[in-house]
Amino acid sequence: MALHFERSEFDARRDRLMIEMAERKLDALLLFAQESMYWLTGYDTFGFCFFQCLVVRADGSMTLLTRSADLRQARHTSIIDNIELWTDRDGANPAIDLRNLLNEMDLLGARIGVEYDTHGLTALNGRRLDEQLQTFGQISDASGIVGRLRLFKSPAEIAKVEKAAALTDDALDAALPLIRQGGDEAAILAAMQGTILTGGGDYPANEFIVGSGPDALLCRYKAGRRKLNKNDQLTLEWAGVFHHYHAPMMRTVLTGKVSRRHQELYDAALAALLAVEKVLTPDNTFGDVFDAHARAMEAHGLTKHRLNACGYSVGARFSPSWMDMPMFYQGNPEPIAPNMTLFAHMIIMDSETETAMTLGRTYLTTESQARPLSRHDLDLIVK
């Protein structure tokens, strides 16, 4: 089978989940998030765009309900032994198939947790699910259970993120020679993604951000490419990916002369990131991290040009986004703990002068100071 971890790793994850289920007095858990299924079993697919569900019982046994197209995928990439199929047909309602499966598993009247908060369960399918289960058992929202377990990385997972981070650095190295007057965004993007794939990496859970000129102020990918001018700005956000584990980085690279405004924004971004690094320790919270970022931005008079979040957890994620929870935003009480992999980004977008500046990288938290996973320094890059 195409498993990326030892069986003992999956057994340990299952045992952690069983403890959580017991504490919540759940007889079964219905998982719809692809990253939850991947973490728990190794199951690797983009078939979650259709209805599928991994049923986990309190005793640790698991049954997957999916489509015929994913039968062999599940057999080849996961440790799941019990796989049931629902049939594509006109008027199909796979929620009925799931209810019937749960009934066959003797779960009628049971306490069942549902992973609602995921792209793997559309609003339509969620409504269908509720219609079938509202009188079937005691249903509760259990969205955060597996997500929080995934927040804390095992040594084997940390090794995956470290490999991803090396690919992130390699991608920047491939891009830098192409960033110059007349340089093509398309060539830069191709070089970065090609380097990651050639290095044994994977596609990212969302598109890389590449934008120059006015587009450097955008925080999302968009279609369309341009070529760089003599004095230009290029914002890049990308991630090396290894076995679906992500290690993002974000930089704004300049060509030609550095304007006074670019220098001011870079100084602020650097100060903010260094302030954030100091509080990425177990005696602080995710909210404290955001506050450190906000104070630095305020000290530079840039409150109106910053964002309302400055990073998030990263790990194994699937489309449409590599962003994981929890995030660095105001008031988030989640404690920083060792063995988290966290992406901190300082993003300053001055729309009044059309000036962009970003600075971000991925960290591994420890018992004390967090460790950057990039070999690149934080100097302003000017080509």
From TrEMBL:
<protein>
    <submittedName>
        <fullName>Xaa-Pro dipeptidase</fullName>
    </submittedName>
</protein>
<dbReference type="InterPro" id="IPR000587">
    <property type="entry name" value="Creatinase_N"/>
</dbReference>
<dbReference type="Pfam" id="PF01321">
    <property type="entry name" value="Creatinase_N"/>
</dbReference>
<feature type="domain" description="Peptidase M24">
    <location>
        <begin position="160"/>
        <end position="366"/>
    </location>
</feature>
<dbReference type="InterPro" id="IPR050659">
    <property type="entry name" value="Peptidase_M24B"/>
</dbReference>
<feature type="domain" description="Creatinase N-terminal">
    <location>
        <begin position="13"/>
        <end position="151"/>
    </location>
</feature>
<dbReference type="InterPro" id="IPR029149">
    <property type="entry name" value="Creatin/AminoP/Spt16_N"/>
</dbReference>
<dbReference type="InterPro" id="IPR036005">
    <property type="entry name" value="Creatinase/aminopeptidase-like"/>
</dbReference>
<dbReference type="Pfam" id="PF00557">
    <property type="entry name" value="Peptidase_M24"/>
</dbReference>
<dbReference type="InterPro" id="IPR000994">
    <property type="entry name" value="Pept_M24"/>
</dbReference>
